[in-house]
Amino acid sequence: MGRIPRTLAVVAALVLVTPRIGIGASHARGTQPVVFAAPAGDRPAGPPAVSDADGSVLPSGRLLRPAGTSVVTGSDALGFALTPDGRYAIVSNGDDRASTLAVVDTATMTVAARYANAAETFYAGVVALPDPVDAARTLVLASGGASNAVYVFDLSESGELSADAHHVIPIANGFPATIVSSGDGRRAFVIDTVGNDVAQIDLATRKLAGIPAAVGFFPYGAALTPLGLLVANEGLTAYGTLATPAAAPPFEAVAPDLARASSLSLLPLEGDATIGERAVATPIALDRTPDGVRAIGGAHPAAIVSLKTRPYAFVALANVDRVATIALAPGPLDGPSWVPRAVGGTELRLYDRGPYGTQPTALALSADEKRLYVALSGIDAVAVLDTTDPLHPHRVGLISTGWYPTALAVSADERYLFVTNARGDAQAGATLERIDLRSTDLRKTTPAALAALRTIRQPNVPNPIVPQRFSSRGSTVVKHVVLIVADGDTPDEPNLHALALRYGLATNVYADATAPDVGHQYLAAGIASDYTEKTALVRRGRRALPGANQDPEDYPRAGYIWNSLAVRGRTYRDYGDLVHLSGYDAGLTPDAGLGGTYSLDVPALAALLGHVDLAYPGWNPHVTDSTRADEFVRDFDALVKLDNVPAFTEIWLPSGTPADGDRALGTIVAYLTHVPQWKKMAIVIVPADAQPGEGSDAARTYALVVSPYAKRRFVGTHHLSTVSVLKTEEELLGLPALSLGDELATDMSDFFTPVADRTPFDRVDAP
Predict the structure, then answer these.
(1) Beta bridge partners of 686
(2) Fold of the CATH domain 64-238+257-288+298-438+446-451
(3) pLDDT tens digit sequence for 498-553
(4) Residue 191 predicted with pLDDT over 70
């Protein structure tokens, strides 16, 4: 078992030798409703404990049991391509910190070669095709993403990649993503995700041809169809530079634009399979404009595949767990004004009307086009759909994959399904997986995939403090929930030490996010959108759009806990979180209210309007957490005196200075435990990202529960994650799940007791 931070490990050892306060015996009559929990139980994150059949344990507490043979390729693999003969797969590993191309021998599933150049980065797009200049040679193109270029390689018989004589094709201000080759193999179409256009490359000359063709917002996926190039637009709007930087962003929903937001763009091709210089894209609407109340994030069309035998295409809608069917030819009842449009599809939620979170992100068709394989990034599986009736595809089963599948391809002989997994095997990195379809029995793989996701937790004794999921009233005694996101690295500091010794300490808890900023998404939404996961590790080159993945494109469909509270008329207040948008100056102005200024017109979450302390600094390295703590006390004390304390409060302490962060934590907790509302309060303290100690699991972190109803000197050993915190908050407040993340996580109900101890906490001042 990986070690928790050193001082907290000592605290845990001290607490474990003392008696624990049990949950009270009195409870309502009747049976408990079903509660989902992570299947890990008490197992720590890491490789199988007993046998391969157990599966690795992910930070979320889910189990990883890939059905195929896997090989580690690098980090953050987002795309790959099979060579024309199927001998090799070229995998792009897009992490800015270690961006590489891996060439995998598909017969032996070993890495034949790797390519890396410190000056080059790689993103999602890879194609491999015969060189139009010399058909005996295999040409490989890889999108550079942050490098704003497409790189051209020659692939040798032994699998080595060497720079082509025309190696670099600049793509100005584009952030190239998906690459699609034309039917005759003489053109390549490059999707420029930041440039909102499509560039063309003449593969014979290795040069750009014509001018970029405009499409929708933040395009990503694309496919060639009989009508032209079909492009998926993931974004919601375009952002402009403000004439004068603002002290705060507007808190509002994005303006409607059905043609370019969460839509498709169809670009016609001329007779020579090129996009004409005057080509105008036909827009295909896929989604209504998010209303900012119940629909928060866009649909996020992420991938497209076109049928050859029938006039249809399928589109994966990552944010709404759906595959949409697009008609590419008029039907018998369509008139002369017909245009391509969505005409059918199927839901891919885990169960009927359940929360979103399966996240379909990639597609592949069988040769007879009667099977559609869908990568479900959110549940580490591939869904198999019967597409005999393309208007009404139906689910046949599931196949387990590695962690976070992102791209698919079926071998020419249809024996193998190849899958790239961006997080891979949870220990060594991203993987390419080969699944033998001939030996895959969906009657066995489907229940296995579901068992790896969740278990049913039926407590022997009902918990009167933390009600079961979907209670409309929440806790009868805890009426105020406070979340303190303590991102300062403070495990060995005196206040955290004292709190851990006195209250409930989680010792087997992990960060769901693989990147620091993404942790805020998991804490507030239980999930990170596919857009967030694809961009969090490729900040370089996206300026002025790096932000902290808190822009409208990052919003999950159901939004955040703030949205859930707003819909139900509950009170809430935010101190510093979810306002670090693209265009923020990252704290270069030390005296600004929110910690910096905003140079782009990126809107902040509409539900936060009037619920943010505009004098509380968010991220700004020039501002101390002690200053933040003083501002919190000033603002919150006015609410205390009016007896108007919110039902939910979040406080972000982003300082990286341990002593300062710990002092601020002590100040805030001491203050809250001395106010009259303390008697009905629960405080949860957790970092947004991993806080591993020396030799510990890389995802290890900690969590504390501080409350009159928190068990004293309690050590929780159930496998928990940062999403467990959100689930517990929702249960206390009577809120439904926002996503599959919090629906299936293990909660922290065992940290509470009906026996109240209202003794306040006093800050510990270090010498």
Answers:
(1) 485
(2) Methylamine Dehydrogenase; Chain H (2.130.10)
(3) 999 999 999 999 999 988 789 999 999 999 999 999 988 887 666 667 778 999 99
(4) yes
Tell me the C-alpha distance between 602 and 670, whole Å: 37
Is the model more confident about 88 or about 10? 88
- Residue 632's Cβ-count burial label (10 Å; 0-12, 13-18, 19+) is buried
End-to-end CA distance of the chain, in Å? 34
- Beta-sheet pairing, 282-285 with 301-306: unpaired
Helix (H) or strand (E) holding 627: helix 625-641
Q: 6-17+470-751: which CATH number, 3.40.50.300, 3.40.720.10, 1.20.1540.10, 3.10.50.40? A: 3.40.720.10
**Weakest-pLDDT range from 42-56, 201-215, 750-764:** 42-56
Residues contacting 355, CB < 8 A, separation 6+:
349, 558, 736, 737, 738, 739, 740, 742, 743
Whether residue 458 contacts residue 412, with contact meaning beta carbons closer than 8 Å, is answered with no
Q: Is 320 left (phi over 0), alpha (psi -120 to 50) or beta?
A: alpha
Over residues 386-443, the pLDDT tens digits come to: 999 999 999 999 999 999 999 999 999 999 999 999 998 877 789 999 999 999 999 9
Q: What is the pLDDT of residues 308-340, one digit of tens each?
A: 999 999 999 999 999 999 999 998 888 888 999
* 3-state class (DSSP) for residue 6: helix
pLDDT at 11 over 80: no
Residue appearing with tokens 């580690």 = 72
CA dihedral 431, 435, 440, 445 (to 10 degrees): 10
Number of neighbouring beta carbons within 10 Å of residue 588: 13
**669, 683 Cβ separation under 8 angstroms:** yes
Give the span between the Cα atoms of 628 and 713, in whole angstroms. Answer: 29
Q: Tell me the whole-structure pTM to 2 decimals.
A: 0.94
Give residues with Cβ within 8 angstroms of 184, minimum separation 6: 273
Q: What are the residue ranges spanned by the domains of the chain?
A: 6-17+470-751, 64-238+257-288+298-438+446-451
Helical pair 722-733 and 518-525, crossing angle rounded to 10 deg? 30
